[in-house]
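Hello forum,

I keep getting stuck at the same step: I have a sequence, I want structure tokens, and every attempt I make locally crashes halfway through. Rather than fight my setup again tonight, could one of you with a working pipeline run this one for me? It's a single chain of 306 residues.
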Amino acid sequence: MRSSQEFIEEARKEIAEVTVSDVEQMLDTDQDFILLDVRDNDEYRAGYIPSATYVSRGMLEFEIEDYVTERDKPIVVYCAGGFRSLLAAQVLKQMGYTDTTSMAGGFRAWSNAGNQVDKPMPMTPDQLERYSRHFMLQEIGEEGQAKLLNSKVLLTGAGGLGSPAAVYLAAAGVGTIGIVDSDIVDLSNLQRQILHHTGDLDKPKVQSSVETINSINPDINVVPHSLRLDESNVTEIFEQYDLILDGTDNFATRYLINDAAVLLDKTVVHGSIFQFEGQLTVFDPTQGPCYRCMFPTPPPPGMVPS
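Reply #2:
Ran it on my machine without issues. Output:
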């Protein structure tokens, strides 16, 4: 049986090694290549090279094609000390990637040279377990989860649209959720407004919302705004958030939300429903038309069913 050292020496015969200085130069000159981090999760959490793509060695064969689709794309692999990266680069070569190299000395050499090292946002053991399925998704990962935890979303309305949105945003770990609603919980709400329960009857909807969201995910900072949006308060409230979800049920408030969002360059996710029909639209005033651009004037009273 061959030793691990023999495997490494065999890989070294097949795979060229580059130095930390070589990688620095490649990054400084904006060369088109993939810097691939194949360390374990706990090593990655301790620090990583800012521009690196992370795929743990244990998932390399299964996930690399999601990150690198071009087989001739140059790939520089690094691990902690430069040995696992040799073996990983060898595997990539066997998979058909034609230009794979290993960074000699690995992350330790990079760090010891005084180069920039970034660290993911610290998470508690409970958070690491709670969001572990997000970490497995290429589109989210730990970096994306950190962004979610640091984000602030405002829900205008805690009814049929705002309720499911709030539940899923809370479960996903959106760190701050603001809720604007001036109504109280009514029995007729309960067949669709899943933020509220039988024991919440006659409570303000924002109070019921806070309690439900906190029971789903105690990480979340829920900010209640028990009021009606109007011209005197909308700007001050919107300034506190990154994204606005419009779940309102009247045109006057929709146009108010639109105008404030345009003024403040806030993106609005707009939803509306009628029986079994629904509409979902994203309005980003920095990228395209707004709600008022599409519908310059509201329909006459009585023209739209409720």
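The chain has a mean pLDDT of 94. If your local run keeps crashing, start a new thread with the error log.
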